[in-house]
Amino acid sequence: MTVAGTGLAIETRGLSKRFGHQDAVDDVDLTVPAGTVFGFLGPNGSGKTTTIRMLLGLASATRGEATVLGQELPGALSSVLPRIGALVEGPAFYPFLSGTANLMRLDSADRYASGSTRRSRVDAALDRVGLTHAAGKRVKAYSLGMKQRLGLASALLSPRELLVLDEPTNGLDPQGTREVRNLIRSFADDGATVFVSSHLLSEVEQMCTHAAIMSAGRLVAQGGLDELRRVGDAHVTVVTPDAERARRRLAAFGFVTDEPAEGSGRVRATVAVEAAAAPESIVAALVADGVRVRGFTVEQVTLEERFVALTGEGFDVVR
Amino acid sequence: MSSAEPGPARAIGERAPLGSPSGEGESRHPSLGISLLVSELSVIYRRPRTWALLAALAAVPILIAVAVRLTDDGPQPGRGPPFLDSITNNGLFVGFTALVVCIPLFLPLTVGVVAGDTIAGEAGHGTLRYLLIVPAGRVRLLLVKYVGAAIFCLSATLTIVLAGTVIGFALFPLGDVTLLSGDTIGPGESTLRLLLVAGYVTVSLLGLSAVGLFISTLTDVPVGAMAATIVIAVASQVVGALPQLAWLHPWLLSNHWLGFGDLLRQPISWDSFGANALLQLGYIALFGALAYGRFTTKDVLS
Questions:
Q1: Is some CB atom of chain B closer than 8 A to the CB atom of A84?
Q2: What residue numbers bound the domain in which B263 lies?
Q3: ipTM given for this complex
Q4: pLDDT (tens digit per residue) in B14-49
């Protein structure tokens, strides 16, 4: 649809949200290309959910603009929202109603959803997340994982162009996590854009093609996963008796070599990833210079190191 | 979902034709919200709590009738709630008596629970965000919530009347009813009058429902909204009992709550019904507008 104009499913410019004196989201310029599985990474409390709330019209932005599926928010909310399926801050249901009744309730709130196909669409959504056997049970008897799946099912009641999934694997066992990952891939195969937030880097690495990293309310990096990996340092270690010659050769490739450790026979050098030459050409050049290469290792910065470097480590919640 | 195979294309698999988010290929006429209202009513009436409230209301006429039946002397005229002494002669009076007993506290209590729960309850469950994402539309949701609460008011008063009539028929004779004007009417006509009174009481509760709806938009804690609504109903009656504040009485929510006597005269006088309806409409307009102003601009963070 209109997305084709810019090729972007979500675009924000200077999006900000202030609660009292605290900038929960500060000047975020998010660019989510259509058709991607986009990981929205950040530690707890970094502003991911608040951003999602603004994108879905649940909260108003203090400053900035957002365009979703080619339409300006919040003006076009009522025409954009039917095209979006979402899971925000965990699933939420009426505990005293069954899984089916909960989905029927949500679907009947949708003024564009047809009543005559309601039952079959609800059944299909339940089937797709593997909840058919528990459809008649009251939600209060569901496990957290089952509620999470029911939440995913509610996002699938109608065909969607964009799925916004906030921490979709929270509370799932490894089997459930794998199933959710497969589901997300199948959404993407159907042509939908999937915007999935997570504080788990490994999850994003396994599912996503693109990612953005939030820290303390600010967007600190975004782009294709490969791009994100490339920003940073590459290290090579050469094991050789000809340390001095190796250092000169590596310097010519733009590497900065560490202070030589006396008699270790190892040379460790660092270069920016985007400037790094192919390992095989470095080895060939070293050998051509008469360096006796006994060992050669390349360490790429993992996205994890990058994530940790950008957001801080462990349980230090930023604020 | 036991594996990752795509399976037959369903749900998201069916790509929506242009301009038709529902993907059903139908015209994009938005529904008015009848199905949302039906769904709202089914949520209210499939909830065990609603039935507990209605059961408590139904227990009042039953308690009254059984107590009167088991007492040998029968109630003394002029003691106890109005109509109590007439019950032994006519079972129809059980419903009247129970309504009078329930108006000051029991009915406002149950209405407070349902009206206070409207928005805050959804927020408390977290379902409010999902309803808004669907999107149910904030104004539409607010309207449906209010109509749902109003229908509950009707079902609450009808529950008292129905339980009172059934137990009255079971335990007492059925006879003619002497009206406040001294005229006598038969059981058929009296049943009609009883329903009229139930209608009057329902209308009396509509203003309180609007107050509850507004309070409900202020918080994510349903119990708080319920308690505040009930406190307002009680406070209104306390103020109404103070002669020093007589100037305020015409504006009180509860001013006409017990004024259904006019419906028990021959011919029926509609004055108090009209005055009550007007007052309740005023409350609905004021608190409806406040609820609208609050809810349409509210950040839903629950």
A1: yes
A2: 32-295
A3: 0.83
A4: 433 333 344 333 445 566 678 899 999 999 999 999
